[in-house]
Amino acid sequence: MIQPVREPPLLVVEGLSVHLARAAGRGPLVEDLSLEVDVERVALVGESGSGKSLTARALLGLLPPGLRSEARRLEFAGRDLRACSPRDWAALRGASLALVLQDPRHALNPVLSVGQQLDEILRLHGRLPRARRRERIAEMLEAVGLPPSARLLAAYPHQLSGGMGQRAMIAMMLINGPRLLIADEPTSALDAELREQVLELITTLVATRRMGLLLISHDLQSVARHCERVLIMYRGRIVDRCAAAELARATHPYTQTLWSCRPSGSTYGKPLPTLDRDAIDASLGR
Amino acid sequence: MSLIHSEALGVEFGEHGERRHILQDLDLTVFEGESFGLVGRSGCGKSTLLRVLAGINRVWTGKLRLLDRDVVPGRRFVGDLRRGVQMVFQDPYASLHPRHTVGRALTEPLVVHGVSDVAERVVAALSEVKLDPAVAARRPQQLSGGQRQRVAIARALLLQPRLLLLDEPTAALDLSVQAEILNLLNQLKRQHAMTLVLVSHDRDVIAHMCDRAAEMRGGRIARVLTGGELRLA
Amino acid sequence: MRFPAWQSTGWQSAARRSPAAMIGAVIIALSLALAVAAPWLAPYAPNQPELGQRLEAPSAAHLLGTDGLGRDVLSRLLYGARPTLALVALVAAGMVPIGLAAGIVAGYYGGWLERALMGLTNIVMAFPRLILALAFVGLLGPGLINAALALSLTSWPAYARLARAETRTLRRSDYLAAAEMQGMVGSRLLWGHVLPACVPGMQVRLALDLAGIVLAAAALGFLGLGVQPPTAEWGLMIAEGSKVVFDQWWLAAIPGAAIFTLAIAFNLLADGLRDLGDPARA
Do residue A156 and residue A209 come from a single domain? Predict the structure, then answer.
């Protein structure tokens, strides 16, 4: 039987580490991290300071000045990202690789309207004639649940509510049909009600467009509903890997606590489980 | 015994021709010793209501009775009333002065109210929120989000309030840190026999923390949920 | 809210991170030191005319030559630093408190008070600084104090605007609300809470302004409106030297270079402070 040629997984990371350029006694911020993302939804979960956002930025070559990263392997669709020049990156980002950030008001250009920004991104990475661009923009806006109206296209980011701004950002990031979407806490700045909606939107779009998704969050229960696999990070390392369906039965103490520390009506009157950080540090040999 | 009682409370905003009602026709009763929640989407007026109760927003209409006294709009809270009502803000980074050390942030209120034995009180306050006394020498930037919020809570407790107002106290925190802070709040509430009014957009937090809650929409109270209803939702 | 990195990490690491700030600071410190130590360092008395040695080129005896009255240029340069630096210090001491006070009061109380103060600020800002300073000095007479007064009274608006913007933001923030909840009111709030918030923005602005003040002070001196001859002052020295600039070019060029260096030093310091305070570069 002829085996079909397997395409390489969308994203392969092996031995990624991020540290301060002038190290001066501080350990690495991300240490020896390895993960793979294919056409699936993977969540990277950890608390503030666990290094999850830094990981996302390192994957996209967007580390802030003063930080350096290295990896044994860092490949996107078979292409070695470590060898990318700034020009290569510019061509990749927004076209094949997309990043959705936490606060759309800070990530969108405040002096351009929504319509202008969507148009700009299309023109940066393609050569569609204006009429086609308008169609694409309208399609994309509908896909994210925004009215493709003249009013919306003329609106500036600060005029949009949190949820709308986030949808606009998603539209911008997906309009060029990327293969991989990295979403860094895309719902943290939103009200609880909107969070579910926006996450639903992201996962639906990702599924219908056969994309890979790396969702970064600190809310384990929330990502469990939307992702297939979960990677748990703590202080720069991945400490547990789990299928989303298995999270309730996790055995790692950190994962267990993260899973059960959510408040709800059923925890009323009882103290919530909290992390015993010393014990976890000890188990990691620190 | 009702600690808070308001009738037809209203807050308007805006200038001639463009007045908006941020709060309208609000009748609210909160009993002593309970944990009362205010829940609703952004813009429903819950934070404004909290600020009226805190005495920060002094432009309102209607009747308000707080801590067994009638409150009049336009006047700052003084004396027992000022000490008796304290607040923990949402973003500790924005409510702790970045150029003051923690020690100063905790000392100042005591000095202003003429309390003696300030140093001991500060150390006691820090240990109550499970912070090392060495934290007093640090500035907010040097603390984590959870630590900052603990400092904010310690500061709110310094004057021994009967009523503690909390404006989304854990919204800016990780889930695991939120769990720690919520546990701390419940413990302190029992220890100091306080009444809590908690604002949150997160129904799970309200369901966990509160005995009763008011659902707000468009500046009004749409519904008051009893304990049972909260647990079911 | 920004928080200058250099205040929490110590000046040594600040120096490493911004050589510009370090260089600027060193030059300024050196100028101050030289000005203070002038009586001990100057080889001659600055105001001692020696008519037999007029307009001499730099030599071993007079390292920077002599001027039209035979006075040693090097000594006059060293002594001349004093009025310049004194003027800069006086102006800073005048304009910053006035500006901050106006801005904080305007931003905190709002209403008609804010409108009145900001109106005044805009009016003063609309006038060209040097011309207004000339008018002041014309009214009050020349001299160091009057020149300092004139420059302060025309330079405070920038600080008022800065302070008012900062105060307005603060008013809406939770810092003041939290302080109010602790029962703090009035002056304690303004001094202890609002003022410190205005300081970071002001520091960079001040360093930058001082560069301009150095030049403005020199300009006033050049026009004869600052300290009067025979006192040594850099602007005055340039004025005197400009009369013979084609033959004894150094008489104007040397004080000019001193002014230039000092102004650049303040610019570098301002640049460096801004970078140090910028969290993106920290």
Answer: no
Closest Cβ–Cβ partner in A193, A265, A275 for B176:
A275
Alpha helices in C72-185 (DSSP H): 73-109, 111-126, 129-140, 144-155, 157-172, 174-181
Residues 124-183 of A with CB under 8 A from C: none
pLDDT in tens, C57-78: 888 778 888 887 888 888 888 8
Hey, are the CB atoms on B96 and C177 less than 8 Å from each other?
no
Of B82, B83, B95, the CB nearest to C178: B95
Beta-carbon separation of B175 and A218 below 8 A? yes
Q: How far is the alpha carbon of C279 from chain B, nearest alpha carbon, in Å?
A: 12
Instruction: Check CB contact under 8 Å for A218 and B145.
Output: no
List the domain range (segments joined by +) for residue A137. 105-176
Indicate yes or no: CB of A192 within 8 angstroms of CB of B202.
yes
Indicate the residue type of A51. Answer: G
Q: Is residue C76 part of a domain?
A: no
Strands A180-184 and A212-217: parallel
A169, A232: one domain:
no
Structural domain count of chain B: 1
Within this chain, do residues A57 and A197 fall inside the same structural domain, yes or no? Answer: yes
* Average pLDDT over chain C, rounded to an integer: 82
Residue A131 lies in a domain: yes
Domain span holding position B184: 2-232
Q: Is A65 on the interface with C (CB under 8 A)?
A: yes
Considering the domain boundaries, does residue A60 fall inside one? yes
- Chains with ≥3 Cβ pairs under 8 A against B? A, C
Distance CA C84, CA C234 (A): 7
- B95/C contact by beta carbon, under 8 A: yes
CA neighbor of B163 nearest in space, from B86, B51, B81: B86
Contact criterion met (CB below 8 Å) for B195 and B34: yes
List chain C residues with CB under 8 Å of A64. 280
- Residue A82 is assigned to a structural domain of this protein: yes
Phi-psi region of C55 (alpha: psi -120 to 50; beta: other; left: phi over 0): left
* Residue A162 and residue A213 in one domain: no
Q: What share of chain C is helix, strand, coil (3-state, %, to 5)?
A: 75, 0, 25
Q: Does residue A187 share a domain with residue A148?
A: no
User: Can you give the residue range of the structural domain that contains C116?
Assistant: 16-41+87-277
Tell me the pLDDT band of C5, cut-offs 50, 70 and 90. very low
Of A141, A176, A211, the last residue of a domain is: A176
Where residue B66 sits, what CATH number does that domain have? 3.40.50.300
Contact yes or no for A218 and B203 at CB 8 A = no
pLDDT over 90 (residue B230):
no
Last residue of a domain, one of A159, A176, A193: A176
In a domain, C51, yes or no: no
CB contacts < 8 A (A, C): 3
Residues 49-68 of A with CB under 8 A from B: 49
Looking at the 3D structure of chain A, how many domains does it have? Answer: 2
Classify the phi-psi angles of A6: left when phi > 0, otherwise alpha if psi is within -120 to 50, otherwise beta: beta
Let me know whether A87 and A8 are in one domain: yes
- Interface ipTM: 0.80
Which partners does chain A have (≥3 C-beta pairs < 8 Å)?
B, C
Q: C24: which 2 tokens? A: 């600027």
What radius of gyration do chain B's Cα atoms show?
A: 18
Query: Against a cut of 0.80, is the pTM above it?
Result: no
Q: Mean pLDDT of all residues in chain B?
A: 88
Distance from CA of C279 to the nearest CA of A (A): 11
Q: Do B82 and C193 touch (CB under 8 A)?
A: no
Question: Are residue A87 and residue A194 in the same domain, yes or no?
Answer: yes
Residues B6 and B25: their CA atoms lie apart, in Å, by 9
Shared domain for A89 and A204, answered yes or no, is: yes
